[in-house]
Specification:
The complex is a heterodimer. In chain A, strand 4 and strand 5 form a beta hairpin. Chain A is built from 14 helices and eight strands. In chain A, the strands form four sheets. Chain A has a two-stranded antiparallel ribbon. In chain A, helix 4 packs antiparallel against helix 5, helix 7 runs antiparallel to helix 13 and helix 11 packs antiparallel against helix 13. Chain A has one domain. Helices cover 70% and strands 7% of the residues of chain A. Chain B is mainly α. Chain B has one domain: Formate dehydrogenase/DMSO reductase fold. Chain B is 76% helix and 1% strand. Chain B is built from eleven helices and two strands, in the order ααααααααααββα. Chain B has a two-stranded antiparallel sheet with strand order 1-2. In chain B, helix 1 crosses helix 7, helix 6 packs across helix 7 and helix 7 runs antiparallel to helix 10. Chain B is globular. Chain B starts with a helix and ends in an 11-residue tail after the last helix. The model of chain B has no long low-confidence stretch (mean pLDDT 94). The chains are: A mainly alpha, B mainly alpha.
């Protein structure tokens, strides 16, 4: 295998693994902020127990997120040095800003959240929860900006020597896909936290453990689980329209759409045969055109309008996208069902629903992993859309043997981290909120 | 041209401060991690030591993350050359830091394998410390570069005597930071053992620092003409002499600051030798990566300056606030 391919596999593995943890961090800190606000206002023990329990869980999540996040910052220099040389003007500042403006805030106050319950007043503790929440979301913002700039670059000029120079920081930061991508990603993270909390609390309630604390936790989880997928429907829709406008060949790949036409169908499931340029599957006629601008006959560009060399791996993108959307639809149904059971007062007695909840915990992860694959594989062959090819971005001096060594090491270490994480999470859940 | 040079010098100084801040703050975390089996005789003592850094180490590590980001933002050519050129060493740093980070958390939750995670903490801390010093020694002492700014050596090139001396000097300084932190944060028998460690490390640091100054002066013609060199030497010696008297008086607060002072002196000497190089080319000085040929454009440097000069004072402000929350002696049972 070539050094380039190995470097791509390594990046996919390390960022895919890392992504699990910040997603949980954002979601869990949201629930912590809610329960701690409840504690501050109502002074009831159950809220305090929820926070303390989730803070212990957050300790585990956060440390793995931070440790594997460092890998990402190193990797642009270690494995993608040609990319780094080209984009230092724009990409570097975004990572530096993430450190100064966001990650410091999150990391410094997460220590208070996990260790200082007895050392600070409830107000300072609540403030720390708020600052960790804000810091985490600002971190996500800057990283999303960096990614969005690779998708829809703006605020730059290419000089005579071929170097990419910053012309407007504001344009680079608020490039055309930043807003929608940020909202889409944060909602996915909140859903991840909601399902995690609801899953754990659902298990407690079904087993009759931790009484009022577990029921309150379940209530918070279910309310968020009902809200976030529905909001995501809107955010995802906005994001899809942005992709159709800004990255039409990616949009065409999402639906396996080859010939520019009007009244384009939307596939529920399917299979794309790129060789014969045919897409098979179950589809709703004209729905994609309708969703684009609420006109059943609007025109959607097909892949044939673009050079074949600029097509992403179409079927892979199609499948990843449809898995994500499928999970989103399932989440809407199950979240709303949970809210219905809650409102009608049957949530705590509906045993089959409580039984199912813990098994849903991996689903949001699967959704954002496939969503991320859709965005990143859909951008290929570009590393910066329209500007720089992935094939030109890798380090020159790093041999395939070197990357193979690090890839094997990352695989082993991350497998160990994953096994330990799951094992210790299960242990923490069994210990439960301190009584 | 005059303006961009001012910003390039400013960013050299800012990255210097970020890495210095990292070495002082995560220095004591790494020092505690490396010294764990020597200072902590039983589980309770090791709990105390780990709890003394538990709430703050991840904030401290952000100094490295921000320093790396700042290097990328201000001098992307140097970031790209060093990180890709020192590939295997950088990967080992990463693996070491990953184990250092997760081992403390896993140890707290996984009593059965606590001993194993302690070993991971010790190894991760010590390996990362030595490699940081060796990497820094290489960019200062010089490595072979080609006209495309790419590194042409291999892993073994990094392990020459002078860079290894940097690794040793860094390790000695970090161990002293850790021991001095332990003196400040612990009591009783554990604290007495930490005092003993400080006394031993004081001698080690004195010897290593003098060797480091002599080798630096011999390796860098013109270094002894720079006032910064003497400021660094003086600061290190002052720190170590002060430390000697503080330890004799059993003063438990001052050693950490005196150790930090000595560490800053080592950094100043390194900076005096390096400026304005970022990565010196050992084969041909004209191929060196300097702050002038490796930086981003003026616009980027200006934007970054605004962010850093507003952001960093705020960061330092709330970092001090949080350190004050955890002020005083650490008890073995934390909030785990």
């Amino acid at each position: 295998m070539s050094a380039l391919l190995l470097a791509r596999i390594q990046f996919a593995l390390t960022v895919g693994f890392h992504f699990l943890f910040p997603a949980m961090t954002l979601g869990v800190t949201l629930v912590i902020l809610i329960s701690e606000t409840g504690y501050l206002i109502k002074k009831e023990e159950r809220y305090r127990r929820i926070t303390d329990f989730l803070a212990r869980l957050l300790g585990l999540i956060f440390v793995i997120g931070a440790a594997t996040g460092l890998t990402m910052e190193f990797s642009f220099g270690t494995n993608w040095s040609n990319y780094s040389r080209a984009v230092g003007d724009i990409f570097g500042p975004l990572l530096a800003a993430e450190g100064v403006i966001a990650f410091f805030l999150e990391s410094v106050f997460v220590g208070v959240l996990i260790f200082a319950r007895d050392r600070v007043s409830p107000k300072v503790y609540w403030l720390s929860a708020l600052l960790v929440f804000i810091g985490g979301h600002l971190s996500a913002f800057w990283i999303i900006v960096a990614n969005s700039w690779m998708q829809t670059p703006a605020g730059y000029a290419v000089d005579a020597a071929g170097k990419i120079a910053l012309t407007s920081f504001a344009d680079a930061v608020f490039n055309p896909s930043t807003h929608v991508r940020f909202i889409h990603t944060v909602l996915a993270a909140w859903m991840t936290g909601a399902v995690m909390v609801a899953g754990i609390a659902g298990y407690y309630v079904r087993k009759g453990l931790h009484g009022q604390t577990a029921r309150t936790m379940l209530k918070i989880g279910i309310v968020l689980f009902a809200l976030t997928p529905v909001l995501q429907l809107g955010a995802g829709h906005m994001h899809a329209i942005e992709v159709i406008n800004m990255q039409p060949e990616k949009a065409a790949a999402l639906e396996g759409h080859f010939v520019t036409s009007r009244g384009v169908p939307l596939y529920a499931v399917g299979w794309v045969d790129t060789a014969s340029e045919t897409t098979y599957g179950i589809s709703v006629p004209k729905l994609l055109s309708f969703l684009y601008n609420f006109d059943f006959n609007s025109e959607i560009k097909g892949l044939r309008d673009f050079p074949k060399a600029h097509w992403p791996p179409v079927n892979l993108v199609f499948q990843a996208y449809h898995v994500m959307v499928g999970i989103g639809m399932l989440a809407i149904a199950l979240g709303l069902l949970g809210a219905f059971l809650l409102v009608t007062g049957r949530l705590y007695q509906t045993r089959w629903y409580l039984f199912v909840l813990p098994f849903l915990i991996p689903l949001p992860h699967l959704a954002h992993e496939t969503g991320w694959m859709t965005a990143e594989i859909g951008r290929q062959p570009w590393i910066i859309y329209g500007l720089m090819k992935t094939a030109d971005a890798a380090s020159v001096v790093v041999s395939a043997g070197n990357v193979l060594f690090s890839l094997v090491m990352f695989s082993l270490i991350y497998l160990l981290l994953f096994v330990m994480f799951v094992m210790l999470c299960v242990k923490l859940v069994k210990q439960g909120p301190a009584s | 041209m005059e303006t961009i040079q001012n910003f390039q010098i400013l960013w050299y100084a800012l990255i210097f401060v970020l890495l210095l801040g990292y070495s002082l703050l995560d220095g004591f975390d790494l020092g505690i991690g490396s010294l764990l089996p020597f200072l902590g005789r039983d589980k309770e003592e090791r709990d105390t030591l780990i709890h003394s850094i538990g709430p703050v180490w991840d904030g401290n590590e952000v100094w490295l993350i921000t320093g790396g980001g700042a290097l990328f933002a201000a001098f992307p050519q140097a970031y790209a050359t060093a990180f890709s050129g020192f590939y295997v060493a950088m990967m080992l740093v990463l693996f070491a830091l990953i184990f250092r980070a997760v081992s403390m958390e896993f140890r707290a939750h996984d009593a059965v394998r606590a001993g194993l995670w302690e070993k991971a903490l010790v190894a991760g801390s010590a390996v990362a410390t030595v490699l940081f010093g060796v990497a820094l020694g290489n960019v200062i002492y010089g490595v072979p570069l080609d006209p495309r700014m790419e590194y042409t050596g291999d892993f073994l090139t990094l392990l020459r005597p002078v860079p290894l001396l940097f690794g040793l000097t860094g390790l000695a300084a970090v161990l002293l930071q850790g021991a001095a932190w332990a003196v400040m944060k612990t009591e009783g028998a554990l604290q007495q053992r930490a005092f003993k460690a400080v006394r031993i490390l004081l001698g080690v640091n004195g010897a290593v620092a003098i060797l480091y100054f002599i080798v630096m002066a011999a390796s860098f013609p013109g270094l002894t003409d720079r006032p910064l060199f003497y400021a660094g030497v003086l600061l290190t010696l002052l720190g170590l002499v002060g430390l000697f008297f503080s330890v004799r008086r059993q003063n438990d607060g001052a050693p950490f600051w005196e150790s930090s002072c000595s560490f800053i002196g080592l950094w100043l000497v390194a900076g005096a030798a390096q400026f304005p190089n970022l990565i010196k080319a050992s084969n041909d000085p004209r191929l060196s990566l300097t702050i002038f040929n490796s930086s981003t454009g003026l616009h980027t440097l200006k934007v970054m300056s605004v962010i850093a000069l507003i952001g960093m004072p705020i960061v330092i402000g709330y970092t001090v606030f949080v350190y004050r929350i955890f002020k005083g002696k650490t008890r073995p049972s934390g909030s785990y």
